[in-house]
Amino acid sequence: MFRDQPKALYVLSLTELWERFGYYTLTTVFTLYLIDVLKMQDAQAYLLFGAFTAFAYLMPVIGGVIADRVFGHGRAIVVGAAMMSAGYLILALSSTATMYLALGILVVGNGLFKANVSALLGHFFEDNDPRRASGFTLFYMGINIGSLAATLVAGILATQFGYWVAFAAAGCGKALALATFLYGRKYLEDNHHPPAHAMRSLRLNGLVLLALAGMVLLSIYLISRPSEAGIFLAIVETIAVIIYVVLVFREPAQLRRRLIAHLVLVGFAVAFWAVYQQDVTSVIVFTQRDLDLTVFGWQSPPEEFASLNPFFILALSPLLAFLWPAIERRGINFDDVMKFAFGLAFLGAAYWILTLGIFETPDGAKTAAYWVVLFFLMLSLGELLLSPVGLALTTELAPRHLAGFAMGIWLMATSGANYIAGLLGGLASVPDGASPATEVGIYSHAFFVYGAICIAAAALLLVMLPFIRRAIGFAR
What is the mean pLDDT of residues 203-232? Predict the structure, then answer.
């Protein structure tokens, strides 16, 4: 499996590893930085963080189009990586004014970078290539090595040396991502160059750079006013989907059916990520308030439990990467859409396990830590079944001239899910002065509902499975 993969997989996986190190170094400490250093109220900090992450996942839609039509994937990745490295280093200046500038640059840089690494990797696999699922699982493994490393070092850097050191480390990580990509371009053949149909006039390139500067300014404005961001996100994402649908209906009938099936899967991905995102909001708050944090005699900080997710991803990724080809050799019909449905089911089971843990806890006691460990195990299995498969299907179903836009639409699902996750989080909101019994009752009800949403979505997708299979044109 490792020998047969294209060399580009290793170049792009290492590039993405360092990029994720930078991103998760930031996100691990950023909320605490807003509260401890900039003295923001909790609600204000959470809202600002949500607006930033939502725009970070929205901008790849535009970044994908720029790559498809003007820059090509390679140039978009280089410009995006350079912008993000600069953004992290500006954030290290540690002032409110430079913070918003840094966040605006990071959002636009992420838009150019994020969609195009995955889309570029997809060009190295043929349609129905049996290596594709394993390759993207290995790619996803690289992502989680970066996130695990960031989770382990970010808090130490921030507490021992200052937040600015953590932000500077994120910038260095991004610079290493850029260096890795530039060094490895010789293994990318001609796939990183602008496509033949791309518009490459100097005037157009200048206009695109000017538009990118305008997007930075717009991002600064909206992130600094997060209460207005939700309406803007809804309008922009609706317009993006409409434009994509119009382009889809211009394609030949067979390709059109494949792309419509892809949009259906994007809708299910929104449900997945909206529930998944609760692990760093309502679940981590539950962990702090109602979990027995004593582990082998050591009082663990609640944030440490978040590292279980990348740990399990790394532990399970090689197993699944070997498992898929073995299943196919035995002729078992477990195709990518079925994996998608099982990913939703595993995520739902994770929240129901947490609900069971609360019910099994005696009154007045704190829930045992192993229930949260089991939760993250099931959540990670769900993520591995859905996320890399979704990336692989996106690159497989979209034609080359729509590859960047399609990947942007896939990533935009996470942007919309971040906003919906904030609404769902209201189910787990505990009012001031609530009794311990009321508090755990609110959490158990919320976690049960989160699980039910995913289980219902998985059941619906299984019902739709024959229709989606026919639309896609494969049933492996």
Answer: 85
